[in-house]
Amino acid sequence: MKKMYCVALLAGMLVYACGGQKQLVQKNQEDVEVIVPCSGPEYMPDAEHFRASAMGISGSQEIASQKAMTAARAKLAAAIQTTVKTVTDNYTSSYEVGQQEEAKGRFQALTREVVNQTLNGVKVICQKMMKSPEGQYKAYVAIELGGIDVVKAMNNKISNDEKLRVDFEYEKFKKVFDEEMKNAAEQQ
Predict the structure, then answer these.
(1) What pLDDT is recorded for position 180?
(2) What single DSSP character describes residue 30?
(3) H-helix or E-strand containing 118?
(4) Which run of H or E residues covers position 55?
């Protein structure tokens, strides 16, 4: 009798365990859409604007907000540097061979300065704050900077550099820049 009771108990536990597994597997097979604030097509770069989105998490609202803004600014700076480097490479390739390397080096140095200065002019286009059930704050932010602001800043820097100013053609540089902004927007 004792053996029969043990066998019945084991069989019951096995059935219960298998039934629980089926429910668990079924729940894990369903996809859940995650909606991320301050992201999506309207927050992507376009032919006229550099844009970046980011999120920051912290137990402090202020720190979460700072983390999000720092991450977004870093993404924006990287996008600007990449675009301006491509524009600079394309623009300086029209120089004579002997001057090309020196011009590229000077342009790249100016690019770093311009990126640092123009990031002060970013515009916040979306900002949301959430609080998780565990008490963590999640800050979401999207920022943008107009491409024309970057071109103007480059023009100002180049105008102050004697060697580059002699050969610099603003309209040609702006044309190459606008083409690269359009190409970058199409890749998004």
Answers:
(1) 83
(2) S
(3) helix 97-118
(4) strand 49-58
Residue 139 in tokens: 């800050």
Fill in the DSSP letter of residue 130.
E
What residue ranges in the chain does DSSP mark as E strands? 49-58, 123-131, 137-146
Report the SS3 class of residue 44.
coil
How big is the CA angle at 144 (ends 140 and 150), to the nearest 5 degrees? 150
Contacts of residue 17, Cβ cutoff 8 Å, sequence gap at least 6: none
**17: how many CB neighbours lie within 10 A of its CB?**
9
Quick one: pLDDT band at residue 177, thresholds 50, 70, 90? confident
Other CB atoms within a 10 A radius of the CB of residue 90 amount to 14
| 108 neighbors 161 (Cβ within 8 angstroms) | no
Question: Mind listing the pLDDT tens digit for each residue in 88-110?
Answer: 777 766 655 555 566 666 666 77
Query: Could you give phi then psi for residue 131, rounded to 5 degrees?
Result: -130, 125
Give pLDDT tens digits for 42-67: 999 998 999 999 999 999 999 999 99
